[in-house]
Amino acid sequence: MDGLAAWWQGLGPWQTPIEVLLIVVVAVLVRLVLQFVINRTVRSIVTGVKKKQGVEDTQALNATPLAAVRVVQRTRTLGGVLSSVVTTVIVIVAALLVITTIAPDAVGAFSLITAAIGAGLGFGAQNIVKDVLNGLFMVIEDQLGVGDVVDLGPATGVVEAVGIRVTDIRDVNGTLWHVRNGEIVRVGNLSQGWARAIIDLAVPYESDIDQVEALILATAVGMTSEAKWKRLVIEKPEVWGIESISAEAIVVRLVVKTRTSAKDEVARELRMRLKRALDDAGIKLPALNSIVLTGFEGAGSIRGARPPKTAQLPVLEKPKDES
């Protein structure tokens, strides 16, 4: 031990560069080891879920229980965030050690540096802190994950990466949006739980509504009974009835509860089959000049076979004025 200390002291002017080099090498090795552990853990969890469900491709998990999909997506997201956090922490610690090695007298000045950094965080860097904290909470609370289809307000699309400061969203046109986590005030996740395919079908005003609704429901039930579509549909299709009436047409609403990734596919197939069924029944769809069908639905228009029950509000009688 004394010989090693003597050898180290004998390096003379080379002592500081070698110490700095050792710090950098150790930091790189620690990062590689932690990165290996994170990647191995992520692969182990993802592979375990795939093996349990008997699939090889992650996309095949869309047909498996929804919890398995969320486990894979959340694991990959947490893996990416942890990798970013590990890299940031190691770089900061290594930089401080290098500065301490090169200028030992700078240790006493770290209190002033810390005060300056605190002031900077309070003013100029507060947005960065907000981005980091918001990103961590979004991942921990499972608000979104890699592969989810989300509506963040500034951008809507598929989540490609979730960093500690920025989330990357690829929209339907292929544009990659870099959204700061601190600017995300709401998250509309279209990939959690289930989705609902809503089809508003306009038929002539003079049509027999009972016959039309029976035809629509029979077509939808027949489609969802097939093996190809049965695995994508969660519940039996429902006809919610007349949505609107005009002098030209009556709009009937059909809804199908599906898996999140299958909503558009199911809706397109249903539209094609409904068109063929109406043609075979001799029902000609009217030209819509004054009817505008909207895409997004408000919470007030959602109802079905089991609408929510609410208690009646008490009616307070106005007291009579005494004469």
UniProtKB/TrEMBL annotation:
It is found in: Cell membrane. Gene3D superfamilies: 1.10.287.1260, 2.30.30.60, 3.30.70.100. Its main location: membrane. Keywords: Cell membrane, Membrane, Transmembrane, Transmembrane helix. Residues 127-191 form the Mechanosensitive ion channel MscS domain. The chain crosses the membrane at residues 20-42, 80-103, 109-129. InterPro entries: LSM_dom_sf, MS_channel_C, MscS_beta-dom_sf, MscS_channel_2nd, MscS_channel_C_sf, YbiO_bact. Residues 200-284 form the Mechanosensitive ion channel MscS C-terminal domain. Residues 303-323 are annotated as: Disordered. It holds the Pfam family MS_channel_2nd. It is a multi-pass membrane protein. Belongs to the MscS (TC 1.A.23) family. This is Mechanosensitive ion channel family protein.
